[in-house]
Each structure stands twice: as C-alpha cells, then as structure tokens.
C-alpha cells in the first residue's frame, strides 16, 4: 500500500509537471478540491468525452444529446429531493479539528478487515503452492472465518444504520470499532450531523427580486425536465435515451485524493426511458454495455468490478457502481441506477404539468421508468492516468517515465522531430507536419537531443515519434518510433497518415463496441 501511495504521489506531480492537471488558483496557493486542466489534460479530457458521447449518440439510434443550463429553477431541487436529502453524515475530531464522512470511516474499517483476510489467503497460497484451494481455505480457515464473521456483523449494523438514517448509531459504530482519527490518533469524536452538499447562490439584481438558486449537483435533472421537449420535438419512441455532458458541483466534506473527489467536476450522464416493468431488464443491458465501453480501452479487464449498493437512494430500485482499481484501492468511477419513475413523477407533481408518454403499441399513457448511467469525467481521467503511468527501467541502467495511454485518447498522436536543426531537416519536418496536422494532433520539436525529445513525448503518452534525417531528403522515408516498444521502423512519408490513423482512430475503438 505504501508503495502504491508513493506511485500515486508521483502521478499527481507528473500530471502537474507535464501540463495535465494544475491546482486551481495555483499562484494563490490553490482552492480546496478544485483543479484546472492544462494543455495536455484538456486534450485527454476532450477525447474521453468524445469517446463517451459518440458511443452513446452514434452507436445508439435511440439516444440523443442535450446541453442544459447549470442554473435551474430552484423548485427542481425540491422536487428531486436534493434540498431535503442530498446530505452526507459528517463527524469532526476535536483534537485534529479535521472533518470526516462518518460512512467513509466505517467503509474504511470494512476494507481493513478485507485486507486482513486477503493477507491470510496470500500467506497460505505461498505456503501451499500449486495445491492451494482458495475457496476451500476461505470457507474453513478459523482465522479467516473469525475475520469474516466480524466483517459481516459490522456490515449488517452499518447497513441498518444507513437505511434508518440513524446518526447516533453511526457514531456508536465508530466508537465501538475503536476507529481513530488518522491525524490525531484519538477517538475524541463529535456527534454525527447531516450536511447538505449543494452550493447556493443568488440570482437577480434587486434585493426584493433575488432568488436563491443552486449550482446543480448532477446533470441528470436537466435531462428529466427536458424529457417532454426532447420526446415531442424529436418524436422519440420508448425506449430512448438522452445524454448530457456537463459540470456539476458538490460541497464535498472531505475532498482528498486529487481529482477523485472535487467540488467542481464534470459528469457524463445518460437517462434511458423505458416501459414500467422493463427497467430491470434494461438495467442489466446497461451494466453490460457500460462495462464493455470501459474494457475496450484496454486498461486491464481485471481492474474493474461491480459493487452493488448497500443503501439504495430514495429514488432507486436497483443500483450498482463500476469500480476501478486506483492506486488507493477499488473506487467508484460510474454509477448505474434504476431510478424508477421517481424523478418524472416528482416533476409532474411539483410543476403541475403532465409528464407522460403515450405508448402507441399499448394504446395507453404512463410515466416512463428510467435507467441512468452516470460517470465522472475526472474520475475516468484519473483511472486512465493511473493505469497508464509506468516508470520503466531500460537496458543500460537508464529509466524512462511513459504514459501508455490508449492511443485514441492520447493528447498528441505524433511528434515530428528533425534529427538536427540544420541541413534542410527542419523544413522537411514542417512539410510533414503540414500534411499530418489536418488529421492528427501533432507536435513539432527541434530542441535538445532526439533522445530527450523522445522522453518528453513518452511522458505525455504520444504514441508515435517521426524522425526526419538525412536519408529523408533522399528517399522520403522517416523513422517511426513506437511509444510502448520503442522500436523504430523506416516508413515512407506517404504511409504515415494510414499507419497513425489506424492505430489512433477513435472509430476503431468504437467499432470494438459493435
Ligand atoms: P461518491 O459515493 O464517491 O461520493 P456518488 O455515488 O455520490 O459518489 P453519483 O452521485 O452516483 O456519485 O455521481 C455519479 C458519478 O459522478 C460518480 O460515479 C463519479 O464518477 C462522479 N462524481 C461524483 N461526485 C464526484 C466528485 N466530488 N468529484 C469527481 N467526480 C464525482
């Protein structure tokens, strides 16, 4: 774990050093849990968004997009339940004066027990070698059974407290488990309180006409309140979906782990409207579809798992998370929720407008049910960065830092490098740039030795380096260097667009999804 934390620190500083992510307001020492994307970060982020958007809107005839405003009528957040229930249980440690989420402290405690069990299993696996039967060991080893019993009991107690919204019980669990503040090391906890995560501001110029409005904590409500607009103007028939990418804001209590938990972040959400009674079938379809989208990137199939929710939100009848193995453990990247007809019904009630769909096949009107897929752009960005980062030892004792980004997502697809800054090579290199720049994000670089330039490109994940040398002037060939294998190949200039295009194309990635 310590080693992973170390790697994570390196990734964070790499992201800053190479223009991916900067702390917001950096020259003023930053602003808590707010970040800016730099020259490479914005390209990677845009490519992630494009991959999602096109997978939704191009590959599904029955999904269309919208872009709704961040400000919305405040009644929307009353209807959605956010004003009354979008809370996290917080607890303070009186000694360190630090604030924590009570539920997260308990979840961490559960994870610690899991770790102990895994350690026992790993030890036994080593001892028994090939003949080790893991399932049998987990079912019979007394120590594992003892840990598992403790875990199950804690889990049941935690789940019951969450479902009953019992804040006193959450505190009691923290005390009974002997959970200490990681900073002060003490158990000097305050009571658990609810804290609403929405940011509030005012709209209007004169004091009597101002109105409290919220910065949206999710993009989903912008879709629900436009359901009728899109359905009618697009003449959409059920089942159909509406997709949206946009900023969301949450006043997170504990904002740690870099861009994993931010106060201003971006979501990619799709609400899929279906016939009542068919929602669980579609829930399964979207679980599979979304996991396939993630896996097609090739970050490693073993890095994903589903995690079904302990506590269903007030609107849901099924919910799961797609978790990704970050350096700090498996963490939620995407949520898939069966939201029933809760949102549309609530908006019907609060707005007084009829929000129903006339089903021509059934010849009846009803409130559609909804399956939501909701993924954070920034968490996706973080999972891509973490799984791509490698410090590689090279022959001869040299090392390099390389980002093995999925090629279709890389901010720069190729760099054009004249071997030396004379003899007509820069001019030839510019000529090549002028052809390639219409198809790919290319960088021109003539400073420093070519070895150093390769390293700079490896560090930002550029899949290809094209080196122009004396031979290029004679026979119009260049060397094409592959980021991952570092192999170099002599290639005619005329073949470059096809070679790079094939490897880096977003279309080819989308084709994997069928
Ligand atoms: P968590 O339990 O981690 O707070 P959540 O369950 O509240 O997340 P959802 O409301 O389901 O998250 O939001 C959908 C997605 O939006 C999440 O899967 C995540 O990728 C992203 N997201 C939510 N909150 C944040 C945040 N503070 N910073 C960055 N991304 C976020």
What does this structure look like?
It is built from 18 helices and 23 strands. It is α+β, with helices and mostly antiparallel strands and 514 residues long. It folds into 3 domains: 2-86 and 197-385, BirA Bifunctional Protein, domain 2; 87-194, Herpes Virus-1 (2-Layer Sandwich); 399-513, Rossmann fold. The strands form 7 sheets. Strands 3-9-10-16-13-12-11 form a 7-stranded mixed beta sheet. It has a 5-stranded mixed beta sheet with strand order 20-19-21-22-23, with helices on both faces. Helix 5 packs antiparallel against helix 7 (142-163). The longest helix has 27 residues, at 102-128. The chain starts with a helix and ends with a helix. The mean pLDDT is 95. Adenosine-5'-triphosphate binds at residues 218, 250, 252, 261-262, 265, 267, 332-335, 374-376, 378-379.
CATH topology of the largest domain: BirA Bifunctional Protein, domain 2
How big is the Rg? 26 Å
Gap between N and C termini: 38 Å
The overall average pLDDT, rounded, is: 95
What's the CATH H-level superfamily name of the largest domain?
Answer: Bira Bifunctional Protein, Domain 2
**CATH architecture level-2 label of the largest domain:** 2-Layer Sandwich
Helix content: 25-40%
């Amino acid at each position: 774990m310590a080693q992973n934390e170390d790697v994570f620190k390196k990734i964070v500083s790499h992201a800053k050093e190479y223009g991916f992510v900067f702390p917001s307001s950096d020259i003023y020492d930053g602003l808590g849990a707010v970040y800016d994307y730099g020259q490479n970060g914005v390209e990677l982020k845009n490519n992630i968004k494009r991959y999602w958007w096109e997978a939704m809107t191009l590959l599904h005839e029955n999904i269309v997009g919208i872009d709704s405003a961040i400000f919305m009528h405040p009644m929307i957040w009353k209807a959605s339940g956010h004003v009354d229930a979008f809370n996290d249980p917080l607890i303070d440690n009186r000694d360190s004066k630090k604030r924590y989420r009570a539920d997260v402290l308990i979840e961490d405690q559960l994870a610690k027990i899991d770790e102990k069990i895994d350690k026992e299993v790993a030890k036994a696996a080593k001892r028994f070698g090939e003949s080790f039967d893991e399932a049998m060991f987990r079912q019979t080893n007394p120590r594992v059974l003892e840990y598992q019993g403790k875990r199950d009991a804690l889990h049941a107690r935690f789940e019951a407290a969450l479902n009953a919204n019992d804040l006193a019980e959450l505190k009691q669990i923290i005390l009974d488990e002997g959970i200490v503040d990681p900073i002060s090391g003490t158990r000097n906890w305050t009571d658990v309180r609810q804290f609403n995560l929405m940011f509030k501001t005012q709209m209007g110029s004169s004091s009597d006409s101002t109105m409290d409005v919220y910065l949206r904590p999710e993009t989903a409500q912008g879709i629900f309140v436009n359901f009728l607009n899109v359905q009618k103007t697009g003449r959409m028939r059920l089942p159909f979906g509406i997709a949206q990418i946009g900023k969301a804001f949450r006043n997170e209590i504990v904002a740690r782990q870099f861009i994993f938990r931010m106060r201003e972040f971006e979501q990619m959400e799709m609400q899929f409207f279906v016939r009542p009674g068919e929602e669980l079938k579609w829930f399964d379809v979207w679980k599979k579809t979304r996991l396939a989208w993630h896996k097609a990137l090739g970050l490693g199939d073993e890095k994903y798992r589903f995690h079904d929710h302990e506590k269903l939100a007030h609107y849901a009848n099924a919910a799961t998370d797609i978790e990704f193995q970050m350096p700090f453990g498996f963490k939620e990247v995407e949520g898939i929720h069966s939201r029933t007809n809760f949102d549309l019904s609530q908006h019907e009630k609060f707005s007084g407008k009829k929000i129903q769909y006339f089903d021509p096949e059934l010849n009846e009107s009803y409130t559609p049910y909804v399956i939501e897929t909701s993924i954070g752009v920034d968490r996706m960005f973080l999972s891509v960065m973490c799984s791509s980062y490698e410090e590689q030892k090279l022959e001869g004792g040299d090392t390099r830092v390389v980002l093995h980004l999925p090629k279709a997502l890389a901010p720069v697809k190729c760099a054009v490098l004249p071997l030396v800054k004379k003899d007509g090579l820069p001019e030839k290199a510019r000529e090549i740039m002028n052809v390639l720049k219409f198809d790919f994000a290319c960088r021109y670089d003539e400073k420093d030795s070519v070895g150093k330039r390769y390293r700079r490109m490896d560090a930002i994940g550029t899949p290809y380096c094209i080196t122009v040398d004396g031979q290029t002037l004679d026979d119009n060939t260049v060397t094409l260097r592959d980021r991952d294998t570092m192999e170099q190949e002599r290639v005619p200039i005329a073949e470059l667009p096809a070679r790079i295009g094939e490897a880096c194309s977003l279309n080819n990635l989308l084709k994997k999804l069928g």
